Amino acid sequence: MNAVTVYVPRDSAALAVDADAVADLLVAECARRGLALNLVRNGSRGMFWLEPLVEVATPQGRVAYGPVAPEDVAGLLDAGFLSGGEHPLRQGLTEQIPYLARQERLTFARMGVTDPLSLADYQAHEGYAGLRRALALALDGDAIVSEVLQSGLRGRGGAAFPAGIKWKTVRGTQAAQKYVVCNADEGDSGTYSDRMTLEGDPFMLIEGMTIAALAVGATRGYVYVRSEYPHAVATLREAIRVATAAGFLGDDVCGSGQAFHLDVRMGAGSYVCGEETAMLESLEGRRGIVRAKPPLPALQGLFGQPTVINNVITFASVPLILARGAAFYKGYGVGRSCGTLPFQLAGNIKQGGLVEKAFGLTLRELLHDFGGGSASGRPIKAVQVGGPLGAYVPASKWDVPLDYEAYADMGAALGHGGIVVHDDTADMAKLARYSMEFCAIESCGKCTPCRIGSTRGVEVIDKIVRNQNRPQQVKLLRDLCDTMLHGSLCAMGGMTPFPVLSALDHYPQDFGLAAPDRKAA
Amino acid sequence: MALSDSTTALGAVLAKWAQEPGGLLPALHEVQELLGWIPPDAVAEIATAFNLSRAEVHGVITYYHHFRSQPAGRHVVQVCRAEACQAMGADALLAHAERRLGCEVHASSADGRYTLEPAFCLGLCASSPSVRVGGRLHARLTPEKFDRVIAALEGVQ
To answer: How many domains does chain B have?
Structure first.
């Protein structure tokens, strides 16, 4: 009998719900029953309510079972799951699960499909097609930069700056040494697409960074990964070792004569190191204090040299753009928001997970069609879009299309695509206080509005809640937020007012104020 | 580890990173991995190796939440306090953890068994609330499941 291939994810979110125990039991139980098993530890499909999601390869396609607890393993084998047999946990063919089938997975096409550390698997699924095209067509750096520019790709870390313009600047700057740095300091609550990429498809990031290096003439690169992601660090390090051994990294990338050396550096629990200049300071071995700009990192970045800095998902989007062309990528999205964004549904949501869709869908579609409503079954009260510095979006705004400009117009931000759902038990004054408290903990201390403003913000919100001169304190809070918005050096202090003011504007009753005026909203 | 062994090991770590551009953070990570924390004696040695003042090294260590200037308890328990976990009851879970472990957050239990810390996002935001105990992650935690995780550490059924 031929061995049956079974997939048990190795993503952190699967490991955190006992995926290792499931895999171990599966191996032991199959051995005991004399069944031949080929176990693959894949990435996660991103349907986290079904994790551990175990898949079985059948002639009809991969059949999913989940969430599988260790105690379910024997029963699944009894039910003949190795041939796709019926069982209460059976979810049908993976590709046909509506949550996945309705997505537009471009960047995440391989996620959960392949073994993250198999270079053969990666290449069998369009991996390294982008780099090969860049090399085979003898694309010079200008052509690569122009392809990225044409695709309309914007920075996926949150600032949404056009990637091609950054690359062009670095390419046009003369220097003996240039760098490519990946910002994998994914500190935003509600986001995990970087982590999934590092753990589930690391070669995609390596390929994207290699293309960037060829485009701008850099020979060294660093990936700055937060210390909260040890599994991601381990997987990425192993992937770099594999890619180097196969000649995709090193002194002579794919025989092109160009060198590109890639290293992983670990952060140390500082949120503000996700800000690019603070990250550079940290990479250079110092406190992660924000630098004033200019000079731009593209001109004077790491160790004072021209540096391309992009987020994981930005680099990860590049291989496909090169492989299929700028026009293909630009065909997705709306307005100036081109391509897709991996939205990450999190918090109090029934079906939390990664949804990659073209820009332009609405929060309502994400929350209801994909998310299935709240996990608690209670009404959804507030949704924080774009991480801890993102605004709370009330139900009246859930039909605004998710694109960078539409969100900016309503005083919100898409950020890194994290979407955190709160049900009607949420106390918005408490969450606003938390935003200020978080800013006080994580502020680097360089600029006064952020360092002092955040601490004063906590005190003022406490006074509002205690009804100590409430009207006066509300005015003071708004004034303070105005100072932070306009006077802070970076987004840490400059965006903390987003969640605070949106909570105050849309949920004033939680602060002891009168309910909002419908007409004014 | 005997004192002399750890001194040699520390020297090896510093020799490895001192000449590397931006080598201080990786060196601090390895020192903490080796000793469990970064003791004051080590700070002086690190400063010498990197040709920095002790104040500069101290400044870096204390800037980052990850680095310890005090030894931790035998088991470090980190409870995520970020928004996605708050939306699923992280505050109540943290209060429960304080009672169960017998220590407040940012502190260690009297018997030195546990250190309880907040985490600001473990990246398991679709499976909230989440906790890390030592090197292991646990998601979709309830107070009951938390107790089972701790009981397993203590070898109690």
So the answer is: 2
How are the residues of chain A apportioned to helix, strand and coil, as percentages rounded to the nearest 5?
A: 45, 15, 40
The range of the structural domain enclosing residue B89 comes to: 75-153
pLDDT in tens, A396-423: 999 999 999 999 999 999 999 999 999 9
Do B133 and B112 share a structural domain?
A: yes
Contact B127 A16 (CB under 8 A): yes
E strand residue ranges, A348-469? 353-358, 380-385, 392-393, 418-423
Check whether residue B101 and residue B39 sit in a common domain.
Answer: no
Name the DSSP letter for residue A255: G
Domain closes at, from A385, A408, A423: A423
ipTM: 0.96
Tell me, what CATH number does B7's domain have? 1.10.10
**Does residue B106 sit at the A interface (CB-CB below 8 Å)?**
no
For the whole model, what pTM was predicted? 0.97
DSSP A34-76: T--EEEE-----SBGGG-S-EEEEETTEEEEE-SPPGGGHHHH
A-chain residues within 8 Å CB-CB of B126? 13, 48-49, 192, 344-346, 349, 352-354
Residue that is last in its domain, among A393, A423, A453: A423
Contacts of A98 (CB under 8 A, 6+ apart): none
Contact A470, A476 (CB under 8 A): no
